[in-house]
Amino acid sequence: MNRLEQWLSDNRIVVPPVPQLIEGAIALGFVLLALASGWFAGRRSGARLSAFWVERVGQAEGLAARMAAIVRHGVAALLLSVLFYLWPWAPPAAAGIGIALGAATAMLVLEIMRGLAMPRWAARLIALVIFVAIFANSVGGLNQVTDLLESIGFTLGTRRVSALGVLTLVVIGVALLALARLSNRLVAHSIQQARGFDATQKLLFQKIAGIAILVALFFFSIDLLGLDLTTFAVFSGAFGLAIGFGLQKTVGNLFAGILLLMDRSIKPGDVIAIGDSFGWVNKIGVRAVSVITRDGKEHLIPNEILMTERVENWSYSDRNVRIRIKVRIAYESDLDLAQQLMLRAASESPRTLETPQPVVWIVGLGDSSIDYEIRVWISDPEGGIGNVRGDVYYRMVGLFREHGIDIPFPQRVVHMPGTEEQEAGLPPAIARQEA
Q1: How far apart are CA 146 and CA 226, in angstroms?
Q2: CA distance 248 to 244
Q3: What's the mean pLDDT when you consider all of the chain?
Q4: Average pLDDT over residues 295-311
Q5: Which residue has the higher pLDDT, 312 or 412?
Q6: Which of 88, 188, 268, 347 has the smallest number of Cβ neighbours within 10 A?
């Protein structure tokens, strides 16, 4: 026994036999080859798959931007899995392959979950659990890890609450949430690409599909965890009361939103007026409708309000909207010329329609003016109304000044007390004749 062997024996360091070391070196070469193949595959096909994903599915919460990394780690994990189960490797080689396989799989899951906009802690937790499970399985210690986690816990009534059960519950919950997000995105994109539905029907089907996916995943998780549905019977009464009292408005807004989409009385893109303000519908959500005003402010109006209160929909059956513009001219003006100039100003405004054509009507005879009303039509009410009036007024003032049409203003005669006419008690005209 040489000094090195004596030192290893004294420190209880076990050196694998030479055949196992050679096998470990071979396994290391295959691991490096699998990782290089994954890197090459991600570099060559990542951009193409990303473009294909965007074209067929959409961005899908950012998966397209991570497609190269997903391909890289996915190919590496697949090749390492084949390598691990292809040969009965000795413990040193199996441990090395297990570390590489666990790391590649964990990075694959991490990229997918981050691409689905999952929280960082959740993505890292799932990746860590997968790495530990794969590595422990590769060295034959998975049962020891599960037994250790099962031993940590306490008894609550007739059920055993262990660290393994809590970890399993968290992992399944996060995985199902990620699956729900991906499924909603895929289904929504498929419905959006359908040609047989209008925008409102597509949005309605997307909402119904989202609710159906959540319900299906809920029952799937209950079955996967092995829970008995009869255990929820105790809480059904309390849950019903909670919906009846605490969640009454929420549930009401949910069904009101579905009804709005079903009868298509209000659709995304419609221009609606509530009170003195108006705007166009940006999105119909589960709880509220998003309405963007001309000021750029986004109002979130509960769905129930749109179902129960009076709402003007300017684009319900026809997008054309008529605008009334009031004008006053002096009695001495040429009425025919003034009407021609008003029609010219209204017709030359870029947003007014030729059909129906603008009209001008006398609507009243005032104290010092003849009152007109110009009525024009527009087909894009989401662009605002005030700018149309302002443009017509601007053109009309220029034409009036050019052709001598006067816009009157109120005039008042003020008599100062103490004049000679008032002292004589005579009207001003008679007083001037006598003078």
Answers
A1: 18
A2: 5
A3: 79
A4: 82
A5: 312
A6: 88
Q: Name beta bridge partners: 326.
A: 373
Residue 355 DSSP code = S
Q: Which amino acid is at 151?
A: S
Q: Which of 6-10, 130-134, 225-229, 344-348 has the lowest mean pLDDT?
A: 6-10
Query: What's phi and psi for 273, nearest 5 deg?
Result: -125, 130
Asked whether the beta carbons of 271 and 280 are under 8 A apart, the reply is yes
One-letter identity of residue 323? I
d(CA 151, CA 57): 45
Return the closest-CA partner of residue 183 out of 51, 52, 57, 56. Answer: 57
User: Is there a contact between 161 and 230 (Cβ–Cβ < 8 Å)?
Assistant: no
Residues near 264 by beta carbon (within 8 Å), at least 6 away in sequence: 198, 200, 201
Q: Among positive and negative, which fits the CA dihedral 4, 9, 15, 18?
A: positive
54-74 b/e with 16+ CB inside 10 Å = b?
eeebbebbebbebbbbbbbbb
Q: Which residues are CB-neighbours of 70 under 8 A, at least 6 positions away? A: 42, 46, 63, 108, 111, 112, 115
Q: What is the pLDDT of residue 163?
A: 83
Residue 385: both structure tokens together: 């109304």
Q: Indicate whether 104 pLDDT > 50.
A: yes
CA distances for 26 relative to 83, 85, 101, angstroms? 11, 15, 16
| 360: β partners | 374
Global confidence as pTM: 0.56
Identity of the amino acid at 48: R
CA distances from 123 to 108, 154, 177, 181, 371 (A): 11, 27, 11, 14, 70
Tally of residues, the chain: 435
The two three-digit tokens of residue 280, written as one number = 């166009």
pLDDT value at 420 more than 60: no
Three-class DSSP labels, 41-64: HHHHHHHHHHHHHHHHCCCHHHCH
CA 199 to centroid of chain Cα atoms: 16
> Comparing 318 with 313, which gets the higher pLDDT?
313
Q: What is the average pLDDT across 92-100? A: 88
Q: Within a 13 Å sphere around the CA of 196, how many CA atoms are in the beta-carbon half? A: 2
